[in-house]
């Protein structure tokens, strides 16, 4: 069973993604900010990270940059999610994929499948 970590401060989003991805056969872990996300990744490395951009404590950019700087996490695929357009995200943020909120669930599932197949 593949493990996904959803890092988002909106409980409605984490609940919906947990239900959707759980129904697709994934084990879904949740963190509500980047700092908690780093702790969860250290406890159990997920196969893929779904990461919100704007969060309190440590935002998605800070978490993504921390992962990119650590050789242990270089191969961890990250889907960055944001209501902001991709062009507004700083160029040092290099996720494997970007989904603009609100996104279609089929689009999310396609990106997850594509990244896990690599």
Number of helices: 4
Extended strand count: 5
Biggest sheet architecture: 5 strands, parallel
Counting helices, strands and paired strands, the structural category is alpha/beta
Number of domains: 1
The mean pLDDT is 94
Binned, the helix content reads: 25-40%
Cα(first) to Cα(last) distance is: 16 Å
Low-confidence stretches: none
Tell me which CATH architecture applies here. 3-Layer(aba) Sandwich
At the fold tier of CATH, the topology name is Rossmann fold
| Percent strand | 15-25%
Order of helices and strands: EHEHEHEEH
Radius of gyration equals 13 Å
The general outline is globular
Q: Give the strand order of the largest sheet, numbering strands 1, 2, ... along the chain.
A: 2-1-3-4-5
- CATH H-level name... which superfamily? Response regulator
Classified by CATH, the class is: Alpha Beta
Topology, please?
Blueprint: E1 3-7, H1 11-23, E2 27-31, H2 34-43, E3 48-52, H3 60-69, E4 78-82, E5 97-100, H4 105-117
Parallel strand pairs: 1-2, 1-3, 3-4, 4-5
Explain what you see.
This protein has about 120 residues and is of the alpha/beta class. It has a single domain (about 5-115), classed as 3-Layer(aba) Sandwich (Rossmann fold). About 40% of the residues lie in helices and about 20% in strands. It has 4 helices and 5 strands; from the N terminus they run βαβαβαββα. The protein has helices at about 10-25, 35-45, 60-70, 105-115; strands at about 5, 25-30, 50, 80, 95-100. A 5-stranded parallel β-sheet has the order 2-1-3-4-5. β1 (about 5), α1 (about 10-25) and β2 (about 25-30) form a beta-alpha-beta unit. The chain is globular, with a radius of gyration of 13 Å. It starts with a strand and ends with a helix.
């Amino acid at each position: 069973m593949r493990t996904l970590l959803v890092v988002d401060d909106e409980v409605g989003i984490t609940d919906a993604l947990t239900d959707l991805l759980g129904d697709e056969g994934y084990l879904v872990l949740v963190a509500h900010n980047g700092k908690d996300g780093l702790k969860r990744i250290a406890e159990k490395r997920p196969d893929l990270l779904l990461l919100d951009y704007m969060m309190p404590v440590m935002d998605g950019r800070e978490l993504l940059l921390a992962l990119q700087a650590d050789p242990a996490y270089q191969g961890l695929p990250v889907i960055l999610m944001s209501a902001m357009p991709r062009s507004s995200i700083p160029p040092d943020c290099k996720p494997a994929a970007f989904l603009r909120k609100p996104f279609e669930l089929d689009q999310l599932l396609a990106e997850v499948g594509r990244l896990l197949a690599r």
